[in-house]
Amino acid sequence: MATLYEGFTLCGLLQTQNVSDSAIQGIELDGDSDHVVVTDTTRSVTLYKVSDQKPLGNWTVKQGQSLTCPAVYNNQTKEYVVVSDKRVIRVWRNEDLNLDKAFKATVSADVWRVHSALEGEPVVLFNRGAVRLLDALLSAPQQTIENVLSEEEIIRWSTNFVVEKQHFVLFTTEQKKMHFLYVQRLNPNTLHKYRLEREDSGAPPLSVSASLWDKRINLLYMYPNGCVYQSAVAVWGQAAALEDEEAPALPRTLLLRLPVGEGELGAASAVALDEAHVAVVGVPHPSAGTGKDFLCVWNTNFQTLQAGKEMAGRIYGQVWCYSGKLLVPHGKALSVIPYDCQKSSLASALGKLWKCGKEEPRSSVAVPSWNSLLYEEQPQGPARAVETRRSKLSRKSQSVLALTVDQVLELIKTGPVEEVQREVEALVSRGDAQDLQTSVGQLACQLVGRSQAESAFYTPGALAQLVHTQYLCHSVCPDLLLLALEHKDYFLCQLCLQLFPDIPEVVTCACLRAFISVLDGDVEMVSLEPDSVSFMEGLVAAGARGGQQNGFSPALYDEDSCDAHHQPRLHQDKTPAVQLEACPVGLHKAVLLNEVLQTPYSDSLLLPHLKDLNSQQVILFLQYLQFLYLKYSQDAYTQMPGLRSPTMTQIIDWVCLVLDAHFMVLVMAPDAKGLLKNLHFFVKSQVRLFSELGKIEDSFKELHRMKPSKDIGQYSIEVIELF
Amino acid sequence: MGEFKVHRVRFFEYMPTAIRAMSFNAHTERLALARVDGSVEVFNFADRYFQEKVIPGKDAHSIEALCWVGGRLFSAGLHGEITEYDLENLRPKYSLEAYGGPIWTIISNPQGTHVIGCEDGTVKLFEVLAEGVQFERNLDRQKGRIISLSWHPSGTRIAAGMMDMIRVFDVLTGHAIQRLLVDRSVGGCKSRETVVWTVVFLSDHTIFSSDSAGKVQVWDGHTGTLVKTHQLTKWDVLALSVSKDESSVVAGTSEGTVVQFQFIAPNLQQQEKEWVRTRTFKNHTHDVRALVEIGTAIVSGGMDTQLVVRPLLEKFEEKCFASGLRRIHFPHRNLVSCAQKARLLLLQFPGQLELWRLGESDGHGKPGDILPLKTKPEKLLYLKRKGKDHICCSALSSCGGWLAYSTVSSVRLYRLQTDNNISITKVPKLPKVLRSAHQLCFSSESSYLFAASSQSSVLFGCSCLGENDCEVHVYNLQKLELHCMVPMYSSCPSAMGIHPTTNNLTMVHADQQIFEFSIAEKQYTVWSRKLQMQGLHNLWLNRDTPVTHVTFNPKNPDQILLHDMYMFCIIDQSLPLPDQKTQFYNQMTLRSLSEQERPSHLHAFKVCKSFQDLMCMRLLDDQSLVVVERPLMAINSQLPAPVRQKKFAT
């Protein structure tokens, strides 16, 4: 899960003439992670200490001059570098107070940017595509600069990296509505040119950012239609694109398709936080209206929104990310928002898979299109275009009859129950996966919101269908499960318990309490998921049949599992044990309890909520768990493969948890005495089983150790000791 | 005791050859055994199956059958000759061409008449005379080769196994009087002839036959009718043997099984006896080619090269040495010589000698470690023997400067240079009397070569010992005369050595007894008397392979080093002897004890079983040990594939 922490304002922004333009030209890191150099669009460069929210220094060029590129900090020489009026490179130190007195050099061509990487010297990128190392340039400032790009080709974005002591400068250009990516390597110099594929709308990318993971440059770019693409740039490719040759298309992966709300995105930007998380500004929050002033963190593996924050004021489509902090200019301020991207274990597992999959094409020449290699089932590029066209077509043909997501959302607010139900079902049943993913959450939230507001409004069918799409999880719509409980919609509860991976323990406990205390008569009429019902029927029937396979008798089993000196007592206990054959709860109630048993939880979080159960509930629940355990100890467990059913471990864990939570209560309650006694045997038999297994394991280990697979060759010199 | 560096050598690719024929002399309790390479071995079954004699083989001289006449041993083979062996000098005495093509079998009757079966279809009778054998006459010549023969105990009839049939001859007239037709294989190819591999003629004129179709058949010799067919296997039944009292017949098959038939009443009420298949033993992986029933045990051998003595447990009242299953894999003598000073190993094969230099390591390690090698072992020399006769013994001087080997026809001595450039020069003009040697030995300072020639002898140090029928003689080499005789002991010494400093002679016998004899005082030493008084530990006495080498630690006169196939042992004479209650194999226990507790648990026999299938163990001058292992697994893996057998789930 990613979290956005409470942010703070680093500095105010100057008002520019044009309201839509940001007042900040660039932010660069100053050596360590706590200092940033902020260059505004006019004349000044300011050094801030981020944690103190305090400016440490400010340098301004004279009136009439302007800074044309963000200042950078040269980490090797501890100097700042900036370009004014496109041709004058200025270099100064922290102790220099006046920028005019600092070192100046005028070069012979217009400079686009100066870039500095942490472990390398700064490089200068000229407007016409030439690249120089700063030192080399300053030693002969008037050297002639060649033109790499033609007159009409304009640089839009650039960055640099140092990968294994090799400088790389990446920049994108625009020429006749075509967009290109250049990868320039220095020493030895090579230049690669790739074509960025055109998006449907033909719009230029809104933002480009690049990040370096695992010695591999990942380019992230976002289009006004909300699509975020990722491309891996092979830095070690050999074939340089020739001038006259068609530049190869840069293969790309669709990382995210963000909801754009109305119209297209204007000023938005995406930056990768790590392999699995992307921070986006200027894109609407999927469950909060159409305002675009949000900073959101998306998980790209699961396509889920992990965190969102509304930013007051205008978003300029700028975001920087330095060492755990996002810097976002918005409204009249530059805010610093610390973030944290924890890898969930599943995500890290997936991330690993994702990474090792990417290693494969490394050896192939230039940039291979591994979209086709890796994601054949969801092809990008032309095939994808066809698909979207087709879906568009189908959407077009249906649009006469059905409503769009937005229309349905509108309808939910006011429409009658039947119509809402019908329209939602229609939408879900026709919708294509990509669209549904984002809309399902909105629909569910809207439905739940209305139901909570109007008690008469409840659409179980529509909600069930939404849950069935599996695009929903508890975090997206936290009130859904509780709403279902409130409406005694046990089928929906069961669905949610089955399909939601992230139900909080408190809700699980609420479900458990509700299920235990429900009257059997109420629940028997409810139709539940047939597989789980048939499992439970089978389990109950196994006992009712009486006979066991292979002449096995449960009484004998119990004797076996107890110590010899317990045997006489056991014979007395036989009668209650046999009585337990009958399931203490009704069939459907049992099915629901099974679902609770199978929900994921963590012990420490569940325990306090378990205390909410009263003693009658606890005893009933324990009786049911004991019933399950006894059934499982017999043959029933293996008889029904493939059906969703609680495992032995889950049952035992729950027994332990319930006992932990209510031990004192149970000890005091007279009617729990027999139960506790039985459970005592039950625990004992488990302990015995495990100790025996432990012994067997140890014996095997010992065997393994005794026979070391020592490969003795033809000759060896060994040391032995005789006593 | 301390730590030892052990050179663990596994590059000796010794490969025993398959056992082809066996003959048991019940009178002397000697088993003669012939291998495919033509060598003959004699085992003393009265003396713990000790391999008393080995007569080396010869190229192109394979043996098909062996037979004893009294104490004399004869063989015949596909080379067409009858050979008698000189069991004193361990060499063929003479060979006689039989003029009948290859000979498949040779048997003798108690009257001392030989009879052989030849490829050309003749059965030839030879008379055994004191000085040799003499051709007597032919029986009626038959069409087809004679594969197997059996005398009727009366000496008047001979049964002969041939292709597809068995003939019974009347010896007096020489005519064939019965013709018993043997079926061809049932499932297999009808066109393939059935070879009657063995026949056994019992005194009640019952004839047993075994054939290549997997059958053992019982015939009535009077009427020539088939009594019963036992289909044992799909493959060949190669060997048959009958017990002396004719109550039991055993058959060996190509599957490695031995099947016993017994002449018993099939059920309790019935009086009439018949031949019933009773037991099956599986002790071999490959063909059982030779089989002998010796009354208390079944002795079998075959392609898998091991000799197996499988006791018939109903013949034993109590547990004893003879009631255990024995497998004899390795010869009871040394095939490896070691130059202790020069760190060289001489490996003896029937056809060649290999000289290896041991590797080196300068590392140190704790017990159990394998040290990194500085230099790898190196094969310095590959010396092919001259002539057709196989090498019977070889020796290497401890300085590594001399090498000698002997065949039955010649002894050769070589000067070796192994320092920088390896060279070997034959020493010419050895004395003419030295035609052959059974044992070769260099003196410790490499100035003398001792060769035991006319008797089976072992030679050592400044004195020279000879053994003959378990006698041990001590000779004084300075005076070149008999010094004394060690008191007679019933069991053959399997290894002995003279201590370099105390001049005590240590002998280990085939029955595992250990004696120490003081040559100076001409009597057993005090330690030896104490040992005999107290008796050796039962676990020591019950080991089933003989000690094949005794040596001493020059740095510590109390230590005697000896080894058998499964262990090596360092006897420390300064420590107390173990009694029957002491834990004999106590190395593991000692390891777990603390320094202080250890001395009270120590005893004289320090046995190390870490190294198995030992062919040689020596102590080098730098106090490191050399063990030469030849893992049986490695031998088995080099055997030809056994016949395919149906196993469950295959």
TrEMBL record, chain A:
Gene Ontology cellular-component terms listed: nucleolus
MF term (GO), any: RNA binding
Domain Nucleolar protein 11 C-terminal: 431-723
Domain Nucleolar protein 11 N-terminal: 1-339
Pfam (any one): Nol11_C
Keywords from the named record: Activator, Nucleus, rRNA processing, Transcription, Transcription regulation
Subcellular location, record wording: Nucleus, Nucleolus
InterPro entries on file: NOL11 (IPR042859), Nol11_C (IPR048897), NOL11_N (IPR012584), WD40/YVTN_repeat-like_dom_sf (IPR015943)
GO BP of this protein: maturation of SSU-rRNA
Name under which the protein is recorded: Nucleolar protein 11
Species this protein is from: Esox lucius (Northern pike)
Lineage, opening ranks: Eukaryota, Metazoa, Chordata, Craniata, Vertebrata
The encoding gene: NOL11
UniProtKB/TrEMBL annotation, chain B:
SMART domains: WD40
Record GO cellular component, one term: 90S preribosome
GO molecular function, one term: RNA binding
Highest taxon, organism lineage: Eukaryota
Organism expressing this protein natively: Esox lucius (Northern pike)
Gene Ontology terms: biological process: maturation of SSU-rRNA from tricistronic rRNA transcript (SSU-rRNA, 5.8S rRNA, LSU-rRNA)
Protein name per its UniProtKB record: UTP4 small subunit processome component
Pfam entry (one): WD40
